Amino acid sequence: MKKTVLLTGGAGYIGSHTAYLLHTLGYQLVIVDTLHHHQVFSPAWATVIKADIAQPGILASIFQQYPIHAVMHFAGFIEVGESVKYPDQFYHNNVVATLHLLDAMRQHDVNTIIFSSTCAVYGTPVYVPMDEVHPFGPVSPYGKTKLAIEYILQDYAQAFGLRYAALRYFNAAGALPQQGLGEWHNPETHVIPLLLRAIQQQKTFTILGDDYDTPDGTCIRDYVHVLDIAQAHILALEYLERGGPSDVFNLGTGTGYSVRELIEAAQNVCGRTLITTVASRRPGDAPVLVADAHKVQSVLGWQPQHSDLNNILATAWAWEQRHLPL
Ligand SMILES: NC(=O)c1ccc[n+]([C@@H]2O[C@H](COP(=O)([O-])OP(=O)(O)OC[C@H]3O[C@@H](n4cnc5c(N)ncnc54)[C@H](O)[C@@H]3O)[C@@H](O)[C@H]2O)c1
User: Whose CA is nearest to atom 7 of ligand 1?
Assistant: First the structure.
């Protein structure tokens, strides 16, 4: 029997796909999640505990009850705009709750963790594609909480022998609709679900800025299929188990698509036309965010298998049609 992995936030978008992939590989799974988005998540193949990781005693009781071998830490608040309005909530839920987790791990001799970081730690690009040594400059409290956690991981590794991999995701996208898994954020601010919902509901889709310094004037992003992100977690876990040193890895494909290219591709995939309008730029949006992903490819042996744009859109479209938006 394979080992037991604890997934914090494992009922969320990326955590649930990773949990499913781990399950198919024979891992035992314990998920702790507040079910913040009121999502329905009770698969037969995982133990799901509805709780906040900052709740006193909860992690101790989980570590005492289950033979946890490693932790994948997805739990956190993720909406950039909300983080500007409520930085207190973000620092508590992301940074303070992570300290609770790391301290509980120390107390129970669990020393392996894969952390969900983000390209938001880099902020506005100084150059693209962005590699792992690109200067830091998070522009939102959200990005700052993730960078703070990376520093904490570094210090805990140095002082206490913690072993970690921090995966800096670019834009997670796509779904696994045949398993009832997909994106379920509330509020939803990610462009692919928003544009597919506009197509489905025959509503106008608003492009936020078409005067960027890009070929068609709209923002360019690096979209990674959520199953490829899940696969990277498994590779990172195996890497740490082989004795690989703690490290950070960008998780992107290295290819960027503009919002207009997304719209064009989505219309083709869905076989429907989308009406669009243009509004002004959203503060803090960089013109281009594209990963230099050579490190994750060479060190972890990661190769995206599902991140073709049409596959991302087709799987997300199938999910949106089954799932009623909140
Ligand atoms: N979605 C992306 O494109 C993206 C990009 C970069 C980084 N990330 C990071 O990846 C992680 C997962 O993102 P996601 O898109 O799956 O988000 P998500 O909101 O779908 O999942 C996060 C889950 O964590 C849970 N949660 C939040 N705080 C908790 C707490 N204190 N205790 C227990 N559970 C808690 C929520 O209920 C939710 O189910 C996050 O840490 C996010 O910052 C996501």
Answer: 118
